[in-house]
Automatic annotation (TrEMBL):
Domain AraC effector-binding: 3-151
Gene3D superfamilies: Regulatory factor, effector binding domain
Pfam families: GyrI-like
The protein's name: AraC effector-binding domain-containing protein
InterPro entries linked: AraC_E-bd, GyrI-like, Reg_factor_effector_dom_sf
Organism: Pseudonocardia ailaonensis
Length: 154
């Protein structure tokens, strides 16, 4: 699949997340747990839809792992409980693409952004994120935005 990549300025967007430091091998088992905690918190506050899922990643060279924030974009304030905290998707200049189709293809979207940055002389920072479109049982209707902060822009 071809991924069109664009360079954009984005504003910070409020999120409710559970942060963690993990490894890529542990991540597939961890993210559903953290996402479940966030959604339990939102449901307790009367919110059961309208918040897009997000996964923010920051390289953590000191630990050899990756810092993650798993949660949702907040569309309205709500009380946060347990390990769920307020955060935000960063503001700044980003290289962005939209992936259409199954999540298994997200690696292609990330590689497309990195190739595009290299071809345009831009250096992505270690901060990147995915914003997930509405759930659909039809893989053709699934989309995910992949964004990388460009070094020197945040």
């Amino acid at each position: 699949m071809d991924h069109e990549v664009t360079l954009e300025e984005v504003a910070a967007r409020p999120t409710a997340v559970v942060p963690a430091v993990t490894t890529w091998s542990e991540f597939p088992a961890l993210w559903p747990v953290l996402s479940g905690e966030v959604w339990a918190c939102l449901r307790a506050a009367g919110i059961d839809r309208g918040c897009r899922n997000v996964m923010l990643y920051r390289d953590d060279p000191a630990s050899g792992g990756v810092g993650v924030e798993i949660g949702v974009e907040l569309t309205r304030p709500c009380p946060l409980t347990g390990r769920v905290v307020a955060s935000s998707l960063p503001a700044g200049r980003v290289a962005r693409t939209r992936h259409h189709g199954p999540y298994a293809g997200l690696g292609d979207a990330h590689r497309a952004v990195l190739r595009w940055c290299a071809a345009h002389g831009l250096e992505p920072s270690g901060t990147r994120w995915e914003v997930y479109g509405p759930h659909s049982d039809d893989p053709a209707q699934v989309w995910t935005d992949v964004q990388y902060i460009i070094r020197g822009s945040s």
